[in-house]
C-alpha cells in the first residue's frame, strides 16, 4: 500500500480514514514492520514489501477505525494504550485478512449495533424475519416460507446447484460436497479448496463483525457455534466469492500454474479481499441488516 493521494508526505492511511470515526470504515492494513508511539502519535517503521516502501510513516490513528496487523509486524505496549484511549481497534490478521487471530473490543464507545443485534435475536419473530432478510439477499427475493428448517432446506438445495454451476464454469469435475472434520486432508481437491476458501472468508467476516461491535454467538441462521453470526455473514459471499476462489485455485493447480492448493486459495483470497473491499462491504451489510446508522453521538 502506498501513501494515499492528498495525505501529508510520510503519512500512511486511506482516504476513507478522513470520515467520522463512528463510521468505522477506516481499515488500515500494515505488514512487515514495527508499530510504536513517538511524540504522542503512532509511527510505523516499514520494511520493503510488495505493499509498502521501506520507511517511516506517521499513522493518523484518530481517523482510523481499525488497524489490521498482518505478517511480520510487531507493536509496543504504548500502541495498545494509545489506541485504547482513542477507541481505535487493533486486529492481528493473516495476509489480506485471510485469518483473524485476535480482535479485542478496545473501547469502540458505542453499543448501537450490539443492542440492536440482541433485540432482534431475542424475539423469535424478529429473529426469523432477520433470517429471511439474509436469505433474500442471497437468493434475490424474499422467500414466502416462515419456518427456519424449510428455509435451510431450500438453501441446501440451491447451494448444491451453485456448486455444480461454478464447477462447470471453471471446468472442474464435481462429485458433491464431502467433508470429514476428523480428516479434512482426505477430501478431494475441490472439497479441500472449498474448506480453505470458506475458512478465509469466515476470517474476513470475523474482522467485520468485530469492527462494528456485533455479537458473534447470536446467529440468525446458524446456531450453537460461538461465531454463528460470523457464519451468517460469510455465507452472504459463498456463491459470489467463496466458490470462485476455491474452483479457480483448483483450476490453477490442475493447469500446473500452482502446486499447493491451500497456498493458492490463500493468495487469491488476500488479493480479492483488498481489490474488492470485501471487509468494508461486510461492515455495510451488517449495519444495513440491523438498520443502524452509527454516525451520531456515543451511546
From TrEMBL:
Give me any GO biological process, just one. defense response to virus
> Could you tell me the superkingdom of the organism this chain comes from?
Bacteria
The Gene Ontology terms for molecular function here are: DNA binding; DNA endonuclease activity; hydrolase activity; metal ion binding
Q: Which UniProt keywords apply?
A: Antiviral defense, DNA-binding, Endonuclease, Hydrolase, Magnesium, Manganese, Metal-binding, Nuclease
Q: Which residues bind Mn(2+)?
A: 155, 222, 235
Could you say which cofactors this protein requires? Answer: Mg(2+); Mn(2+)
- EC numbers for this chain: 3.1.-.-
* InterPro entries, sorted: Cas1 (IPR050646), CRISPR-assoc_Cas1 (IPR002729), CRISPR-assoc_Cas1_C (IPR042206), CRISPR-assoc_Cas1_ECOLI (IPR019851), CRISPR-assoc_Cas1_N (IPR042211)
- Which family is this protein grouped under? Belongs to the CRISPR-associated endonuclease Cas1 family.
What PANTHER family does the annotation carry?
Answer: CRISPR-ASSOCIATED ENDONUCLEASE CAS1 (PTHR34353:SF3), CRISPR-ASSOCIATED ENDONUCLEASE CAS1 1 (PTHR34353)
What is its quaternary makeup?
Answer: Homodimer, forms a heterotetramer with a Cas2 homodimer.
Q: What does this protein do?
A: CRISPR (clustered regularly interspaced short palindromic repeat), is an adaptive immune system that provides protection against mobile genetic elements (viruses, transposable elements and conjugative plasmids). CRISPR clusters contain spacers, sequences complementary to antecedent mobile elements, and target invading nucleic acids. CRISPR clusters are transcribed and processed into CRISPR RNA (crRNA). Acts as a dsDNA endonuclease. Involved in the integration of spacer DNA into the CRISPR cassette.
Q: What is this protein called?
A: CRISPR-associated endonuclease Cas1
**Source species taxonomy:** Bacteria, Pseudomonadati, Pseudomonadota, Betaproteobacteria, Burkholderiales
